[in-house]
Write a structure and sequence with these properties.
alpha/beta
Length: about 200
Amino acid sequence: MPHSPRFWRGLSTILALAWLLGWSTALHADEAEEALWTALRTGEAVALIRHALAPGTGDPAGFKLEDCATQRNLSAEGRRQARQIGAAFRENGMTNAQVRSSRWCRCLETARLLDLGPVEPLPSLDSFFNQAGRGPAQTTALREWLSRPHDGSPRVLVTHQVNITGLTGVVPRSGEMIVVQPMANGDMRVMGRLEPGR
C-alpha cells in the first residue's frame, strides 16, 4: 500500500532534523577543538603528549637509559604520527614552544620530530611503569613544575601513559594529547583531548 503525502512530509521533516542535529554536533566539536588550540597558543594550557607509536609494552629486559638500542623505539608509523602532531601545532599558529621530554628515547624522538624548538629532558616525565612506587613523587614533582610561573609561550610535554594517567586520571593512546590547565592549588583541570596524529 503506497504511503500518503503526509507520511512523506513527516519523513522529510525527520531527515532534515537529523541532518541539522549532525551538523550542529560537528560545529560544536570544531568550536571545542579550536578552544583547546587557543588555550595552548596563549599559554593558558599545557599539552601533555603520550609518545608516538612504539610497539610493545613497558621496557624490555636489559633496558639502559643511555642506549636506545635497548629500548622500545618509534616505528615508521610513530615517526609519521609525531611529524603530523608538530604540523598541527604549526597549522594552529605555534611554530615555537617550550618542549620538555622524558629521557626515554621514544619520547625524545617524538619531541624532536614535532620540530617546535629545542627539546629539554625533564626527569619528572620519565616512565615509572616498571617502578610504580616512584609514581607519587614524580607526579608531585611534575605538578610543582607545571605550577611555576612561565613566560606565556606554549608548553609541550612528551611523556608516557602512566605519567599522564597519574597526573590527570586520563588513559591516553599513543600520540594523543591531553590539554590541561594548571590551577593555583597545584591541581590540573583537563580541558580536553586532541589526536592530530590520527
